[in-house]
């Protein structure tokens, strides 16, 4: 089974978690695209969604699903999103698509974070995937120097701007064996908007699409 078919399986399993009449948070990426399509094809009618990227908002609207601004809701029943890597504590690296900051905001508003991935995303240790760090453009060089000091090898994501108008530094070789500490430390660098470690707020439930079906972890 292809990775894409595994993503679709996980996405369809997440649709079963959605309660009619609720407002839900929706992340971004190819797995989330499957979720949006499967939700639209189901008979579950939600009140509205808060989207973590312009691309997801557009896809939701394309299916006739109302999209609300995050500031207009005080709570979300669930947040469904993918990940680039996820460990057994359900801590993640996210931001491969560059939507990490809005993803972290919507995840913070939600009661439950349901992560949907294909089997390749499960790892024993975070860090093979370069860690995305969203940076205010004028701080790019300063932040890169601080990341090098911490042992990382930052690389500017060329030709890319986030939905917030910022740049992304993709960082290799950082020791992520203490993800909570590292997430806080990176966020303390002046000019960092946020980083792609989701350890302070890990997922609550993980749905993994595999060749033999969906595996669930809490
Ligand atoms: C985007 C993300 C995505 O969730 C992550 O990159 C996974 O993407 P995909 O579902 O396409 O594999 O964090 O910023």
Automatic annotation (TrEMBL):
Its EC number is 5.3.1.6. Pathway: Carbohydrate degradation; pentose phosphate pathway; D-ribose 5-phosphate from D-ribulose 5-phosphate (non-oxidative stage): step 1/1. SUPFAM superfamilies: D-ribose-5-phosphate isomerase (RpiA), lid domain, NagB/RpiA/CoA transferase-like. The active site is at residue 103. It holds the Pfam family Rib_5-P_isom_A. Substrate binds at residues 28-31, 81-84, 94-97, 121. It catalyses: aldehydo-D-ribose 5-phosphate = D-ribulose 5-phosphate. Keywords: Isomerase. GO terms for molecular function: ribose-5-phosphate isomerase activity. It is an enzyme of class 5 (isomerase). InterPro entries: NagB/RpiA_transferase-like (IPR037171), Ribose5P_isomerase_typA_subgr (IPR020672), Ribose5P_isomerase_type_A (IPR004788). Belongs to the ribose 5-phosphate isomerase family. Homodimer. Catalyzes the reversible conversion of ribose-5-phosphate to ribulose 5-phosphate. This is Ribose-5-phosphate isomerase A. It comes from Spiribacter onubensis. The gene is rpiA.
